[in-house]
Amino acid sequence: MPVLVASDLDRTLIYSAAALALTMPDARAPRLLCVEVHESKPLSYMTETAAQLLTDLGDAAVFVPTTTRTRKQYQRINLPGPAPTYAICANGGHLLVDGVSDPDWHARVTARLADQCAPLAEVQEHLLRAADPVWVRKHRVADDLFAYLVVERDLLDEDWVKELAVWAENRGWTVSLQGRKIYAVPKPLTKSAALREVARRTGADLTLAAGDSLLDADLLLAADQGWRPGHGELADTGFTAPSIRVLPDRGVLAGERILREFLEVVRGA
């Protein structure tokens, strides 16, 4: 039976220049591979060692990139290794099969959202009204499923984020602060539901997962084994569970270690 490996991407396997956390002397820094270009500029990286590990993992398991990114944002990433048959985008709102969104899955997700939480329009309106233009740089909607703000972190009022989280909770939504983005995501929109669907389709009897943010918590708990790095929202809150391995590594080297440990488990299965 195949092993299914579902991993978050940003700040788990791939890293922006600002998130690399290269604390060693420059001469000892790992060689980096650019895996994403946006508007003709390099945007995301992994170490060359991590790139080889991911290639090996793709040959040995069902690797499923699992991201809150929209389909368009995901498709500009050029991951090393075999092209994944499945990918989970928009926090589970889209299940890509050979690069194409499965319409039946998307219809099931949107029906669940309509039934279980406040509509996106209500959340959009609140964000437009309540967010301070002093620190908001962009208002965005992702695939008509959830909303996020791009902010100046140095100017952001962190108490406002906590107040937003309470407001959202009462309407069936979750708030997550990741880098320069504040996400407002419907609670029924989960990576874990999509993970279970891929496991059903592939017949996987062992599922592994990794992630760093609040939006990855359900994914880690749904997998048989999970990993989280020493940075990110989950690390900041001390999130853990018996099935989750907490790594001390931070930044791009955490991504390398996660892949190495994935591969060890897959080869030993």
UniProtKB/TrEMBL annotation:
Keywords: Hydrolase
KW Hydrolase (keyword) present: yes
Name of this chain's protein: HAD family hydrolase
GO terms assigned for molecular function: hydrolase activity
InterPro entries with a match to the protein in the record: HAD-like_sf, HAD_sf, TPP-like
